[in-house]
Structure formats: C-alpha cells, structure tokens
TrEMBL record:
EC number: 2.1.3.3
Catalytic activity, reaction form: carbamoyl phosphate + L-ornithine = L-citrulline + phosphate + H(+)
Biological or metabolic pathway of the protein: Amino-acid biosynthesis; L-arginine biosynthesis; L-arginine from L-ornithine and carbamoyl phosphate: step 1/3
A family per Pfam: OTCace_N
Residue ranges of every copy of the Aspartate/ornithine carbamoyltransferase Asp/Orn-binding domain listed in the record: 149-301
Residues that bind L-ornithine: N160, D223, S227, M228
Similarity annotation: Belongs to the aspartate/ornithine carbamoyltransferase superfamily. OTCase family.
Subcellular location, record wording: Cytoplasm
HAMAP family reported for this sequence: OTCase
Protein name: Ornithine carbamoyltransferase
Native species: Richelia sinica FACHB-800
Keyword Cytoplasm (UniProt): yes
Coiled coil (UniProt feature): none
The keyword Amino-acid biosynthesis is annotated on this UniProt entry: yes
Amino acid sequence: MAALFGRDLLSLADLTSSELHELLELATQLKSQKLKLQCHQVLGLLFSKASTRTRVSFTVAMYQLGGQVIDLHPNVTQVSRGEPIQDTARVLDRYLDVLAIRTFAQQELEIFANYAKIPVINALTDLEHPCQVLADLLTIQEKFGSLAGLTLTYVGDGNNVANSLMLGCALAGMNVRIAFPSGYAPDAEVVEKARNIANHQTEVILTHDPEAATKGAHVLYTDVWASMGQEAEAGDRFPVFQPYQISQQLLSLADPEAIVLHCLPAHRGEEITNEVIEGSQSKVWDQAENRLHAQKALLASILGAK
Ligand code: CP
Ligand code: NVA
C-alpha cells in the first residue's frame, strides 16, 4: 500500500508500470468504498494558475482522508513579492506534510522538490499534467476493464496533457497516437522517454493526420488549443488548429465503442463540438470525478495512509 511513501510526483515517468497499476487499483478500491484510509496530515496547494478541478479534488480528497488543506495562493504569500523559491520551499517543508504545485516552468517545480524534503506533486506545469492522466487512465480502465493493448488518440496541441498521456499510455501498455499541426509537437524529450518506456511493445505515433490517427482508436482525447499562459497566441492558433477539431465525423472513424475524453475546461466549437462533448460517447464527467479518486489514492500512497 505504501508504494510511493515519501515520494515526489513531478512527472508520470517517476512511476514504474507496476506502481501505476497499483495506484489505479487503490483508486478503484477507494472509489467503491471497499477500502477506507485515513492520514490526518496537511496538504499545501501553491497554484500560480487558475484551477477548478485540481484545486477542489485535491481539497476534497484530503478532507476525506481526514487531513487538512491550506490554499497558498501565490498572491497572498511572499512568493508574489519575490521571495526565492528555494527559501519558500525550505520554510513550507517545516510546516506541511505534502505540497501540490501548479506553475509554468517544470524547472520551478524541480527546484521546489530539491529544496523541500516533503513530497511535492505536479498539479500541472507547462510540460506535464500527471494527476490528470492518472484520472484519465482510471476512466479508461473502468470503461474497458483493462488498459493493455488499447489505443488512445489525442488530437490537438502537443501540450502538457499530451506529454503526460504519452508517458501514461506507454506505462499502461497502451498505444498512443498524437495528431497535431506542424509547429505544435509534443516535447521531444518526453516523446523519447515514452518510446523508451514502450520499448517497441506498444506504439507512440506522432502525425499531422487526425483522420488516420483516429481510425480504430478506443479513446479519442483533446484539450484546448491555447493553454494557460498562451492566451495571447490564441488568435494565430485557431485557423491552424481548425482541422484538428473533434467532431462527430472524426469520431465516426474511431472504434464503435470508443469513448471521448477532455481534461476540461472545454471550448465548444473550438477543439471539440458541442454535439460530441454532450454525446453518448463522451465520458468527461466521469473523467472529472475520477480526479478525486485518483488523487486520493496518490495522497494515501505518498502519505502512507492507514
Ligand atoms: N483539468 C484540470 O486540471 O482542470 P482545472 O484547471 O480546473 O484544475
Ligand atoms: N493544457 C491546459 C490544461 C488545463 C487543465 C492548460 O495548461 O491550460
């Protein structure tokens, strides 16, 4: 149970395949309420970007584990007035039991983790969104019974969510195809890591052809065309991304049993049509709920809840 005790989760590549499967199993047991765990510790949330799901699901997960949460918005801390990350990390380390950080540069998260001895969790950076993908895999496992051998196609920007999906699918024994417009590729180092994890047993395919990528896929996934921090580029991006919209027509190329996922927030009429996100194949609300169960399992494992 205490597989991740005391560990950071900065990237999904921090997990082995068996640790990922154990976490998903723990999340399933916690969700079904067959297992109840308590930890009574304190989680700090330090989020430099907006959040609905991540903030609330981490908070509720910690409350359900009997712990407490302090929402340390940077604007109300000395971080906003330039206190060095190294100093902030060493001080928060003395008060908190675990810290979840949402920020821009992955390097900032790594500095926090280096200076704080307590576990640090990536609650989204520009590079990765590992907690999201834990919930995504839980949702896919619930629908299909197991993960190995399934194909997930992500259509859109090669962003943080795409990067973590490549790692998560490779760890889970799934094939992953990323279809993106030229100039918006996922991170090259993450692609290499995912291919190393997949080790020629499963595919990690990058393509500019959304139709070819969608053919026969079990999961069709998208995310916003301009992530937080890229809002000024949105106008330039939209015409380039238009052929990468998930529409009913694109979905019809996927496996007939395929499900549609979106990490949310969604922009209907941009990366996904209203018809698809509100349609019968969309599992986005189950996916959003699973943020709670997956993160509760993660916290319980890291904190050694009993
Ligand atoms: N999907 C996700 O991380 O949502 P929030 O930005 O609302 O936390
Ligand atoms: N790629 C999006 C995900 C939001 C949950 C962003 O970083 O804004």
